[in-house]
Amino acid sequence: MSGKENEGSVATQNMGSHEHHKNEGKRRDESQGWALDDFDIGRPLGKGKFGNVFISREKKTKRIIALKVLFKNQLVQLGVSHQLKREIEIQYHLRHPNILTLFGYFHDDKRVFVMLDYASRGELFNLLQGQPGHKISEPLAARFVRQLSKALMYCHAKGVIHRDIKPENLLLDGKLNLKLADFGWSVVADHSKRHTLCGTMDYLAPEMVSNMPHDFAVDIWAVGILLFEMLVGHAPFANQSGENLVARIKECKIYIPSSVSEDASKLIKAIIKKVPQERIPLADIVAHDWIKNMEQLEEAEVNAFLSSTKSKTSKPSN
User: Where is it localised (predicted)?
Assistant: First the structure.
C-alpha cells in the first residue's frame, strides 16, 4: 500500500497529540502526500459540527477541490475519531461518476484535511428548498434516482452500505450530475447484519427504527423516500415527531398525492416496502419504465434548469 493510501490511518492515529509544530499546517513528512502549502484557500462552502469546508485550488495542477478542515480536539471530545477514519478509508477507495471523489487527506498538529471533489451546485437539499413547493419535475427526479441507484449498486458490489441517504448528503456538479457524499455512517458489510441505529429519522427504514438487524436494503428504502420527497415536497413520514414518527414508519403507510404520475407512484410503492426482501432491487429501479420514459425528457429539462439558474462555481483568488 502506498503512502497516500496509508494517510487515512495516519490522519487519525494521532488525534489526541498536543505536540506543537512550528510550521503548523505547512509540514510535509514522508508519510504524507500533501500539505496545506500545496493549496490556495478560497471562500467557505459550508460549516459542519467538526470544522469547515473551503473551495481550494491545488497550486501545482490548478485543480479546484473542496477542502474539508476538521479539528482534532472536537473529534476526540465527541468520540468520533474512529468514525472519521472509517469514512476516509471507505470513501477513498470508491471511484464512480456518481460518488464524490475523496482525492487524499493529510493532517497537522490540530487539524485533519480531507480533499474532496468540488460539486459546484452544492446540496440537493438546497436545490429542493429553492423550488416552488420544495419539489422538482419528474424528469429531474428520475435522473437523480437513476444516478443514485447506480452509485449504490457500485457501493453494494464493494460491500459498502451507506446508511445515511438524504438530500443533504447528495451533491450536484455544474452539469447537474448527482454525487453521493458523506460516508460517515457507512460500513463495510460482512455476512452478518448490522444493528446500529444511525442516519436521519425521516429516511430510516422500518427495520432500523424497530432495532432489528439491517443490510443493504436500508439504502434502497432511502431511495424511495428521496423520490417521494423530490416529487411531493416533503418526506412521506415528515411533520411527525418522536414515537409518532417511528410508528408511522413501522406501519409503512404512505399517501401519494394525485400530482405524482401513476408510473412514478408505482415505483415509489415498489421501493417503500415494509419487508426488506420485497423492495425492488436497485438494478430494477434503473431499468424501470418510469425511469426510462423520463430519460427521454431529461436532457431538455436539465438544460432548461441550468439556463434558469446560476452555478455557485467560484474560484479562489490568486
Answer: Midbody
pLDDT of residue 111: 95
CA 64, 65, 66, 70 torsion-angle sign: negative
Active site residue 164: yes
Q: Which CATH class for the 4-117 domain?
A: alpha beta
Look at residue 244 in the predicted model and tell me its pLDDT.
82
The active-site residue, picked from 37, 38, 164, 289, is 164
Lowest mean pLDDT among 22-36, 151-165, 251-265: 22-36
Q: State how far Cα 109 lies from the chain centre.
A: 28
> Which residue ranges make up the annotated binding site for ATP?
49, 68, 117-119, 168-169, 182
DSSP 16: T
Question: Is residue 193's pLDDT more than 60?
Answer: no
Predicted pLDDT of residue 30: 33
